[in-house]
Amino acid sequence: MAAKHPETDNLQATLTSIEEVEVRGHIIDSLILPKVLDCITAAGGAFQIKHITVGQNRSDPSAAVIEVQAADDRTLQGILAQVADHGAVPTASHDCLLVSADIEGAFPEGFYSTTNQRTEVRLSGSWQPVAQQEMDCGITVDPATSEARCVAMPDVRRGMPIIVGHQGTRVFPVERVEQGHAFAFMNSSVSTEKPKGVVIRQIARQLFDNRTGSGKTLLVGGPAIVHTGSGELVSELIRDRYIHKLFAGNALATHDIEQSLYGTSLGVDLEEGSLADAGHEHHLRAINQIRRAGSISAAIEQGLLKSGIMYECVKNGVEFQLAGSIRDDGPLPDVVTDALENQRLMRASIADVTFCLMIATSLHSIAVGNLLPAWVSVVCVDINPSTVIKLSDRGSFQTVGLVTDVEPFLRSLLAELRRLEEENGT
């Protein structure tokens, strides 16, 4: 018998626009079904559950067919757009709708706006995966190969086929975390009460597995790494091949190089903790020396730069991307100052990233979080809990946070890695 929502009994006569949708997977224990039903009623619609099958075991998927009802087609389409983000797909099979972009750098009106979750589109009767998954983009389809991929608004070109509406699209929401997952013990809540030793052991395991396997680890780092005297700890991680890529700004690289050349960070002697004579000039003098050399790698070749995070990146073949901001001094010659170009470079670089460790940088963490698909594990370490909260609020719900100081975290992380190396004879 069809289950009817009790609060909508007296609305049926006014609800004339109807569409059936289906949701599949772990829709109950992941709360996907309640979220779909809540979206429907909150938007002014009603529903009838026409059919539901509940999995008997934890590994068994469930499925439900839901009749969505609304007062008019516009309201119905708005509801369908919301529930689609939770994986609800119309039962009537239709290919996606494609409209050619009419101007550069803008989508056609009514374009499909992507999430960071796995997405498929229906083309010529078959479902195709969407490549380069990213939130807040559109989807284009290559006319020659029928391959679909996410495209950012600035990269839209006139005549590019763009999907509009939700017809012929479906999303596969991230469901409950399976037991045994590397971060099964954590969720995206933020608390200073998390068992830090357990968290750090799991992070070390992920780094260790990526070093010995095919996974790639991305470090998104802020200048506090250097300010807290943790630069050598990160350098050690790079030397031991635990970090494959580094995203940072002008500040981290500048103060790392300042520390290497002058022993200071923001003019403060990192050994004594006192302000050095004319120390406020050191960061600018460091930038000037690298600019005179031509680049960071050129400064290393010339024997000018002999230590530090950037030195280890160059020496160990770690790819780095330095993004500029309006407040930068200099900046260093390796810094890319075009924000859109930085986004393109980062998109290209994260294609093979399987784990992202964000340390002590708010804006850079949020920027990278916006680019990462939902299936890439993200750990954010910051003394300020608002950094992790902002990441989650902006849609990077796979982020788990550790609220702690940078230096003790990195020191404990290295100790756990040394323990894993000893246990595994590496």
| Subunit arrangement of the protein | single chain
Q: What count of domains describes the coordinates? A: 3
State the distance separating the first and last CA atoms. Answer: 61 Å
Query: If you consult CATH, what is the topology of the largest domain?
Result: Rossmann fold
Would you tell me the structural class of the helices and strands? alpha/beta
Q: State the helix count.
A: 13
Bulk shape: elongated
Going by CATH, the homologous superfamily of the largest domain would be: putative lor/sdh protein like domains
Rg, Å, rounded? 25 Å
Give the name of the CATH architecture of the largest domain: 3-Layer(aba) Sandwich
Strand content: 15-25%
Task: Report the mean per-residue pLDDT as an integer.
Answer: 88
**Low-pLDDT residue intervals, each spanning 5 or more residues:** 5-13, 177-182, 184-189
CATH class of the largest domain: Alpha Beta
Helix content class: 25-40%
**Mind summarizing the main beta sheet?**
6 strands, parallel
Strand order of the largest sheet: 17-14-13-18-19-20
Number of strands: 20
